Amino acid sequence: MNVSPGGKPVIFNTMMATLNPGDEVVVPTPYWVSYPDMVLLAGGAPVFAPTTADTGFKLRPADLEKAITPKTRWLILNSPSNPSGAAYTKAELRALADVLLRHPQVWILTDDMYEHLLFDDMEFWTIAQVEPALYDRTLTMNGVSKAYAMTGWRIGYAAGPEPLIKLMAKVMSQSTSNPSSISQYAAVEALNGPQDFIKPNAKLFQERRDLVVSMLNQASGLKCPTPEGAFYVYPSCEGLIGKTAPSGRVIGSDKDFANELLEAEGVAVVFGEAFGLSPFFRISYATSNTVLEDACGRIQRFCGAVR
Ligand SMILES: Cc1ncc(COP(=O)(O)O)c(C=O)c1O
């Protein structure tokens, strides 16, 4: 078991501890922005495995197979996902595990940060649970930032094969040392204390998701899939590309869309290019219904004014 100052250092230390120059790390797109940069900083090469809205932004076994080479060291899985909210079912993980069993050089880092934010009674599964034969090459990570709203306490943790955990501890001992003992005690309380608020919280997020998905799908030119988890939506703005914003400028990309929306309506979204899949954008709905209704109303007004 490794305990680090947040989920971020868990992943970064893993990459630092294991990558040699030229080693490849398969990162499905859209990805959490930090993964490719962490791989690059550690001297590795991110290899992007594309997904599409049609497959719910989930990696298909054939696409995983295509991305793997003899140089592949890791696959990073993140379910539920930041930025798409997509979550894998047991059967979907089973199919990916079958591919991974054929490639013993590939280790799996599974980022389970949003484990407790799953909707519509979907059950959470992680790959080492689905295929115990992958145990010896899986790092399962989590943290208290999301489910316990303890981002500032900086605690993330991971379980995996002992030699790997020892290497991660070596990297950590030369950088941050241990996370603060005060935060560690707080995290122990969070994990061992009453958990009864987690389900009602997820329910609240589900209601927010439904509100945002419904309002965005009423905006002309946007198409918003319904995600299974986390607190993000990843709508397509393809219908607005090539059209003219109220400023008179042409919207040529999701970056232009985000900039024009910010300028016209004061709503900040993150453009899809940052997550490696365009033309989309990400909205975090970890805020109140009042703010969300106001923001989505403004997005509708903006889209309605695009010609
Ligand atoms: C997918 C994912 N992994 C890991 C983290 C890391 O969180 P922290 O470093 O706050 O524990 C985040 C935070 O945004 C995230 O979205």
Description:
The model has no long low-confidence stretch (mean pLDDT 97). The chain has a seven-stranded mixed β-sheet, sandwiched between helices. The radius of gyration is 20 Å and the shape is globular. It has 307 residues and is an alpha/beta fold. Helices cover 38% and strands 15% of the residues. It has ten helices and ten strands. The protein has two domains: 191 residues, 3-Layer(aba) Sandwich (Aspartate Aminotransferase, domain 2), CATH 3.40.640.10; 108 residues, Aspartate Aminotransferase, domain 1, CATH 3.90.1150. The site of pyridoxal-5'-phosphate has 12 residues, from helix 1.
Strand order of the largest sheet: 1-7-6-5-4-2-3
Q: Write down the overall mean pLDDT.
A: 97
State the separation between the terminal residues, measured CA to CA: 55 Å
The percent of residues in helical segments reads 25-40%
Number of strands: 10
Radius of gyration: 20 Å
Number of domains: 2
The set of bound ligands, ions and cofactors reads: pyridoxal-5'-phosphate
Helix/strand structural class:
alpha/beta
Count of separate DSSP helical elements: 10
